[in-house]
Specification:
- 2 copies of one chain form a homodimer.
- The first copy, chain A, has 13 helices and 25 strands.
- In chain A, α1 (about 10-25) runs parallel beside α10 (about 315-335) and α5 (about 125-145) packs antiparallel against α6.
- In chain A, about 35% of the residues lie in helices and about 20% in strands.
- Chain A has a domain at about 5-35 and about 75-105 and about 265-335: FAD/NAD(P)-binding domain, CATH 3.50.50.60.
- By secondary structure, chain A is α/β, with parallel strands linked by helices.
- The longest helix of chain A has 20 residues, at about 125-145.
- In chain A, β16 (about 240-245) and β17 form a beta hairpin.
- A 5-stranded parallel beta sheet of chain A has the order 5-2-1-9-21, covered by helices on one side.
- Chain A has helices at about 10-25, 45-50, 60-65, 115-120, 125-145, 150-155, 165-180, 180-185, 210-225, 315-335, 375-385, 390-405, 430-440; strands spanning about 5-10, 25-35, 35-40, 60, 70-75, 80, 85-90, 95, 100, 105-110, 120, 160, 195-200, 225-230, 235-240, 240-245, 250, 255, 260-265, 280, 295, 300, 350-355, 360-365, 370.
- Chains A and B meet through β4, β5, α5 and α12 of A and β4, β5, α5 and α12 of B.
């Protein structure tokens, strides 16, 4: 009778863990996710700006698991863990585990600002991206109906909170769109003035990157017309006004929130197991503090065992991928009576794209800094290669090629699949499931 | 000062009318639609079955209107017409017209069956299609969780009401999917028994087509395993039971409604102007009975002036397209002081696709009937060519090629862009707009 590993979450960490375990058949593996697909967060912003289709950056998990007889998928949401009985209470039933792995990622963190949570557009999930696409396009249409210039500016102005890669990339994209596509699609608005603001609490954009990259980014975005506000953060968003920490008020209908994430706490896991940013405290073998058969990897976890990262690893894709693979290798080693290896993160560098033909790239060793066209090519190539299947790569490559030469895409449809009778996976606990899924939209995604 | 033509509805009829009027600049044209895109209804079912992306069969209207300086787009929904003052009350404001054209199409008709309306899945709009994709995939996931074979069958069984092209094409598609894709994606369900039923009130499928085509279709679908129930219609759909007119009960969660449409009545147009199926009664010049400056074309209209069609034209794409073009030509003739021409429908034949490699085609004159592979190629070619832009054609061709060779697609993602604060286009009349858009989901689409 094979041991059963249950993985919660089908993001970078969870999928990589599962696919590796699918190669050797030592375990029965069940991956649980509240979505039936895996997606590629680094390109969410291109879906949100109607440059890529959702299907370019997402893939059905069941199809990934095809012909891997020991991998199973389960659509559902974790409500509670019962470590004593090795049970998981899901939104649609109960399952048992021998080894449990949290790969639950992080969710958008509004730092307790209710108005922001209610009115801002998050940038974490595929649903967020489509929601943003629909809302911005609707606001542009509203602008075409307004006569008062102030009303128009309010609909067109966009404030992006958070100067990390997402914030930088999305503001660069909007800046370029407002020059090209917007002018062509909305001739009524050619004289309207909408602004693009990028707000960050720190002293520089792209904090973890080299000063060179930070400066390049700042200059390029400024040239594109993005108004960058540093050392300042969003305090509130009410009545179409974004209020900053220094008292500045920006009148807009559009606040995009890319300013922070936090991991998720689960019922059944004691508070003592959580560390900074609600992340689960694990050892070098990804084992959760206080448990023998529970692990956590990716954004959901934090560890101080890696000599290079005593403060814990950054919450980025590369860490999640490498941790998923390391844990898989360890499970296999244990099954083969070999010694598991402690995790050591190999930094592959970081990058951000600023616009067509512009990007910044920092490579760790040898320390190399690229910017401009070469960096842009590197960005495209690496992201293309990181997509999960050839299909996704082809779609995305095609979309990018079209977008590059036509400086345009044709995905600006406001499509809302309204389902009056959305039935949760199992009616029995309909209520809780529905409520939950509201609350933790981004949990397993 | 140019005359202003306002077109309500951006479907086949409305878009063709607008684009023709864009070629000569005799009029200022404003097209009003509650969606910001035009889409291709004949392929809706392929989006619903996750074979095509929404973007393969839809296109932003603003982009279609680019560089056509006399064409304007207005997102909004018609609430009321005030003929006396040549005014239109939209969900988001008021506009005036010199000439008004209804190209408002038809909406799903449930023949007053509230339960069916509440629980069935319609097949008219792009939102319907995505909703269907999401709901069926969710039901398949439910099936994987159930243990009782009856429960499983209930989730997998699909009843399609309506034996027209949509009903035929979608049941053929499901039959093939259940053999290939379902088996691969849901190994848990390989022994489950779900059935596909196609129900029609008439004595034959594809009523308007030749007996040859009807027989071919019946045989092909039966071979594929579709259970065809003729001379019988759906009376009710409650507690996961479809109840047919002959008393038969089919236990299922999935009723797809492709059994009828009706045009829409608008506040401000007298009852005397409506004929069979709520269609607006027009003369050979598409002019609405009782008005000098209001016209109706496409599914929304009915006329007896065409000698070949004393009972009115069928509600099909070709009629809508030809009427849109004829009315455009007439507007141009009038502007040039020439005599408008009465509409004469040129029947280009009808067709339906039954599965990979199978279709039926009837050509009118010379009377030719095709079936099998040749008909299938004809179907593909004609539909591909009918797509509105090269971009759509390429996307679709690519998707079809992949689907044909891989016998598969990778679009089976359940993506729900939940927007907690969907703001209607103008907050002022939020309520009515919201209510309306619920009520007339399919109106201008």
């Amino acid at each position: 009778m094979q041991k059963r590993i249950v993985i919660i979450g089908g993001g970078f960490a969870g999928i990589n863990l599962a696919l590796q375990l699918g190669k050797k058949k030592h375990y029965q593996v069940t991956l649980v996710d509240k979505n039936n697909y895996n997606f590629f967060p680094p390109l969410i912003y291109q879906v949100a700006t109607a440059f890529l289709e959702p299907s370019s950056i997402s893939y059905p998990i069941r199809k990934l698991f095809r012909n891997k007889s020991n991998l199973h998928f389960r659509l559902g949401e974790l409500l509670k863990v019962v470590p004593e009985s090795h049970q998981l209470i899901l939104s649609n039933g109960t399952i048992e585990y021998d080894e449990l792995v949290f790969a639950t990622g992080a969710e958008t963190n509004y730092f307790g600002m209710e108005n922001v949570k209610r009115n801002a557009i998050p940038m974490k999930t595929l649903s967020d991206a489509i929601q943003m696409r629909n809302r911005l396009l609707t606001h542009f249409e509203e602008a075409t109906l307004a006569t008062d210039p102030a009303e128009i500016a309010k609909s067109l102005t966009i404030v992006i909170a958070g100067g990390g890669p997402t914030g930088v990339e999305i503001s660069g994209m909007f800046a370029e769109m407002s020059r090209s596509i917007m002018r062509k699609d909305y001739p009524e608005l050619k004289d309207a003035d909408g602004q693009i603001y990028l707000v960050d609490g720190g002293a520089a954009l792209l904090k973890p990157m080299s000063t060179k990259s930070q400066v390049n980014t700042y200059e390029s975005l400024t040239k594109l017309g993005v108004k960058i506000l540093l050392n300042s953060h969003v305090n509130d968003f009410v009545n179409d006004k974004v209020i900053l920490s220094d008292g500045t008020e920006i009148v807009t209908k559009n606040l995009i929130w890319a300013a922070g994430v936090s991991a998720i706490n689960f019922d059944g896991i004691p508070a003592t197991s959580y560390g900074r940013g609600k992340r689960m405290i694990v050892d070098g073998l990804h084992k959760l503090a206080g448990f023998e058969d529970i692990y956590a990897i990716g954004d959901a976890s934090i560890q101080s065992a890696d000599p290079g990262y005593p403060e814990g690893h950054p919450q980025v894709a590369q860490v999640a991928i490498q941790q998923g693979r390391n844990l898989a290798a360890n499970f296999i080693r244990m099954a083969e009576r070999r010694v598991p290896r402690s995790f050591v993160y190999k930094d592959r560098g970081s990058m951000a794209i600023i616009g067509s033909n512009k990007a910044v790239v920092d490579l760790p060793k040898p320390k190399i800094h690229l910017n401009g066209f070469l960096a842009w090519l590197a960005w495209l190539f690496i992201h293309l290669m990181s997509l999960i299947t050839y299909r996704n790569r082809f779609r995305t490559f095609y979309n990018w090629t079209v977008a590059y030469f036509s400086k345009d895409q044709s995905l600006r449809m406001i499509i809302r699949p309204v389902d009056p009778h959305e039935d949760p996976v199992v009616p029995a606990i309909e209520k809780s499931a529905a409520v939950e899924s509201e609350k933790v939209e981004t949990k397993n995604a």
